[in-house]
Fold this sequence. Notes:
The protein is α/β, with parallel strands linked by helices.
Amino acid sequence: xxxxxxxxxxxxxxxxxxxxxxxxxxxxxxxxxxxxxxxxxxxxxxxxxxxxxxxxxxxxxxxxxxxxxxxxxxxxxxxxxxxxxxxxxxxxxxxxxxxxxxxxxxxxxxxxxxxxxxxxxxxxxxxxxxxxxxxxxxxxxxxxxxxxxxxxxxxxxxxxxxxxxxxxxxxxxxxxxxxxxxxxxxxxxxxxxxxxxxxxxxxxxxxxxxxxxxxxxxxxxxxxxxxxxxxxxxxxxxxxxxxxxxxxxxxxxxxxxxxxxxxxxxxxxxxxxxxxxxxxxxxxxxxxxxxxxxxxxxxxxxxxxxxxxxxxxxxxxxxxxxxxxxxxxxxxxxxxxxxxxxxxxxxxxxxxxxxxxxxxxxxxxxxxxxxxxxxxxxxxxxxxxxxxxxxxxxxxxxxxxxxxxxxxxxxxxxxxxxxxxxxxxxxxxxxxxxxxxxxxxxxxxxxxxxxxxxxxxxxxxxxxxxxxxxxxxxxxxxxxxxxxxxxxxxxxxxxxxx
Length: 498
Ligand SMILES: Nc1ncnc2c1ncn2[C@@H]1O[C@H](COP(=O)(O)OP(=O)(O)OP(=O)(O)O)[C@@H](O)[C@H]1O
């Protein structure tokens, strides 16, 4: 029967009276602080997980897929208390249904979660600051001690059923810098760089740069780019965010994903040249095609380009890596991988953007020795000199070498098979550092070359066919094929023109 204004004033007054007369102070720790997740909430959750496992009457148990650990957290409305420096503190976990309409920035979950801390007024000034420090330190220890690394990927259609943009599983890749077949000197250079970075908080602060580092891994398929990412994750202990750019609908979406990543993380964009159309050359080709089209088709193209405008662009990606938004977290490593470095826009490669460009090469002899140790358990063998003599000319990838070594348990047989394969591979076409073909195509698989040629040359005369077999032309045709495959959804006009 009471009008809402009156009811509101009455409840305000009641609350004021309660707070004034109460012996206690209350502090709420919400899961989200505006647009970002509240790290204190996660720390409290971790800190209370030990109390929840021992003293809570009702706890939520969780074991993530593929994980060894069971985690405890307080169930809805559950309370626990503990003593700190002689003062008693109480925690309660609140979970409330969210109102249906929330702003886009608050979108995270259907439930609003927060912990409330109750502490006596007389203890507040004496212990509260120290108690919160204690929680942060304890959570840090737990995080580094027994927490498992997580592998995140961006959810399809932007949000999963928990309305979180990232989904995760425990990350348990066995690759380490010890098992990675790479020149030991190069390996040392990379691990030193990582160590410098991890210790560099003060340095980055002093020079006025955000605390992040970018690595570009490039090289032919099967040279260990993904294995290197896993090794970096195992070395640093950071979580990995594997960003699938093709699932990201716009630059704004990309920023939102970035905001939702945690500190001490590795953000990976694999095969960057295939994810977004970033190269100058691709742009030029598009412009050329457009100028050749009739005006009706140009209009359709314009519409398509307008639609593409809402997708991730190069400037959006650069803003993601080193623009204003890149500094919304700290201790981040950003890794791009590509098989074709020459397809990337120079803006992406310019110095300062990707701090280290790491070429993952074909299997060298020092790298082979690591594989022999991994797969055969040997560090020396009478056939090693013979392997050393042919390994550079064979230019096989570590993946190819691993495939041969894994098939035979006997070292002699395995090495003989490898030498034979290396000799045979000597005459096969190779891929150079830029991902281009020096004598045809090995990166796409030898069977792809004739297919491209046959397709392009159908209906041409014999003289044309022989001229088309010049290496440069073959490269151009193969490039065309790759560009077609990588082109974002073509509209009908463009398809028919092709
Ligand atoms: N440098 C390496 N050291 C150890 N193992 C390797 C290395 N390179 C490749 N391998 C082996 O080959 C397999 C494939 O390698 P990986 O996926 O890391 O290559 P990649 O360069 O990322 O390939 P792609 O470009 O096709 O993604 C790995 O599972 C691993 O067993």
